[in-house]
Amino acid sequence: AQRVTQPEKLLSVFKGAPVELKCNYSYSGSPELFWYVQYSRQRLQLLLRHISRESIKGFTADLNKGETSFHLKKPFAQEEDSAMYYCALQMSGGSNYKLTFGKGTLLTVNP
Amino acid sequence: DGGITQSPKYLFRKEGQNVTLSCEQNLNHDAMYWYRQDPGQGLRLIYYSQIVNDFQKGDIAEGYSVSREKKESFPLTVTSAQKNPTAFYLCASSIVAVPGNEQFFGPGTRLTVL
Fold this sequence. Notes:
The complex is a heterodimer of chains A (about 110) and B (about 110). Chain A has about 110 residues and is mostly beta strands. Chain A has strands spanning about 5, 10-15, 20, 25, 30-40, 45-50, 60, 70-75, 85-90, 100, 105-110. In chain A, the strands form 3 sheets. In chain A, strands 2, 5, 6, 9, 10 and 11 form a 6-stranded mixed beta sheet that branches. Chain A has a 3-stranded antiparallel beta sheet with strand order 3-8-7, with no helix packed on it. In chain A, a hairpin with an 8-residue loop joins strand 9 (about 85-90) and strand 10 (about 100). Chain A starts with a strand and ends with a strand. Chain B is mainly beta and about 110 residues long. Chain B has strands at about 5, 10-15, 20-25, 30-40, 40-50, 55, 65, 75-80, 85-95, 105, 110-114. In chain B, strands 2, 4, 5, 6, 9, 10 and 11 form a 7-stranded mixed beta sheet that branches. Chain B has a 4-stranded antiparallel beta sheet with strand order 1-3-8-7, with no helix packed on it. Chain B is globular and about 40 Å long. The chains are: A mainly beta (about 110), B mainly beta (about 110). The interface of A and B includes residues 34, 50 and 102 of A.
């Protein structure tokens, strides 16, 4: 069965510092991977997905199949980045598009 | 926001009672999902439906039931068989048959069993 692991429950950095939120997965196929974010008092929303190879709000994530990782990075953290971040995996192929989520990392960016 | 609505926002239930959580979407999405969010547990999938009149169990379906009689509606019933129902429940929807498709989430319902 597929699994997503986010090893850090809490991560605290200072404004302007680099930030990396770790995500590791286990899945025998070729997965689709996502980062979702939940800001305070807002809905859970998509931040980025590896298939798009995009940078959103300065965040990037690279899929490393050798290390089975999809870490989220930003070179200079901002206070508005403080939120709960979830890594999620979608199995490839077939008609099953459900997501498996990690347990989340709460990022706090201090002034 | 908009697109997916959940009601009520807060719900209180006595032990032994069934309760139904509403989820409606106007995005014309084929697929809908129910998740349970507990502190430190992330999101866990309860049930999902990829088409009207069809649904599948997720990872923690015991004690829950769903129906999908209309494309835009996917209500979740928390039955008295659910041993620990107090939680935050999230509904989501997505376009099916698109790799890498985004799930859109509702605002959630917080259920408290008294």
